[in-house]
Specification:
The chain has 58 residues and is mainly α. 88% of the residues lie in helices and 0% in strands. It contains 2 helices and no strands. Helix 1 packs antiparallel against helix 2. The radius of gyration is 15 Å and the shape is rod-shaped. The two termini are 18 Å apart.
């Protein structure tokens, strides 16, 4: 997954969490937080793979 897709996943999760806050829906809040964390993890993986490619001269 690219960094831009990971950032989009984080944004979607943030929106979902905000909707859950507004509706006082704990499940939606938790789903939003989980999506944000998945996005952050995928972004870290994308950054790591970019570093590896750069260090190999590609």
């Amino acid at each position: 997954m690219s960094k831009s897709k990971a950032k989009a996943k984080q944004a979607k999760g943030k929106m979902k969490e905000e909707i859950g806050d507004a509706a006082d829906d704990k499940r939606t809040q938790a789903e939003g937080r989980a999506e944000q964390l998945m996005g952050k993890a995928r972004e870290a993986v994308a950054k790591g793979s970019e570093r590896v490619k750069k260090s190999r001269g590609r």
